[in-house]
Amino acid sequence: MDLRAEFRRWKAQRLSKADLSRKGSVDEDVVDLVRLLNAREQFFTTSSCAGRILLLDGGINGFEVQKQNCCWLLVTHKPCVKEDVMAALKKASGDAVLKFEPLVLHVQCRQLQDAQLLHAVAVDSGFRNSGITVGKKGKTILAVRSTHGLEVPLSHKGKLMVTEEYIDFLLNTANQKLEENKKRIERFYSCLQHALARETMTESHPKIREKDSPACSKKARNTAKAQDTHVPEESEKEIENDGDDDLGISVTLFPEDY
């Protein structure tokens, strides 16, 4: 079967399915990005989470919470206050852990070069833990991720192990990370618009070639900054300083039955 036709079939099947997430809908902060991707014929999203603050009660294995075997005491995609966490902690009977999880977005791409374009945009926008997986049956998936998460145990067997002052400090940190995450999403959206516009122009005019290889040029970044969609100055410098790193694509193979 023609790969393009097969991709269209996969996309139609995925987008027609009901949202089976806990929330049952796309998170507000990532709606525009998801719509932009799904409107393009070469992409469709398979899962997304805009970023959230969680309080989980369950067993801990090497400080890693197994979310399928624990109780969700609190979950929010907005800034969180100490009073909400303290109230939720009263329900904890095991080992409660406070977490911040940044954006996670999975996008199936029609071909590898489409995934490479999206990967470059994601990395340039601050999501430097992103990677591409190629399946044996031709499925190419880009996972957009970053590493600025947070995971801190607060109680053991229902007993609070830290002070309220420390919880307040943790929440300030988590809320700052949530705000940083939102700005990176906005930057990703802005850079993706520029990259797709350039791609369309290049396809319409084959003789046109971009002088700047990065998916989001400094001009685009300055435009985003003018719209207050930039990441904090410290993070922006960190991203630019990392430009010499090897941003090679991580490729693995799915099982035969994927």
UniProtKB/TrEMBL annotation:
SUPFAM superfamilies: SSo0622-like (SSF111278)
EC number: 2.1.1.282
UniProt superkingdom: Eukaryota
Biased composition regions of type Basic and acidic residues, renumbered to the chain: 200-213, 227-240
Pathway: tRNA modification; wybutosine-tRNA(Phe) biosynthesis
Catalytic activity: 4-demethyl-7-[(3S)-3-amino-3-carboxypropyl]wyosine(37) in tRNA(Phe) + S-adenosyl-L-methionine = 7-[(3S)-3-amino-3-carboxypropyl]wyosine(37) in tRNA(Phe) + S-adenosyl-L-homocysteine + H(+)
UniProt entry keywords in alphabetical sequence: Methyltransferase, S-adenosyl-L-methionine, Transferase, tRNA processing
BP GO terms, sorted: tRNA methylation; wybutosine biosynthetic process
An MF annotation (GO) of this entry: tRNA methyltransferase activity
Domain tRNA wybutosine-synthesizing protein: 13-193
Disordered, as annotated region: 200-258
Role this protein plays: Probable S-adenosyl-L-methionine-dependent methyltransferase that acts as a component of the wybutosine biosynthesis pathway. Wybutosine is a hyper modified guanosine with a tricyclic base found at the 3'-position adjacent to the anticodon of eukaryotic phenylalanine tRNA.
Similarity annotation: Belongs to the TYW3 family.
PANTHER family: TRNA WYBUTOSINE-SYNTHESIZING PROTEIN 3 (PTHR48418:SF1)
Stated name of the protein: tRNA wybutosine-synthesizing protein 3 homolog
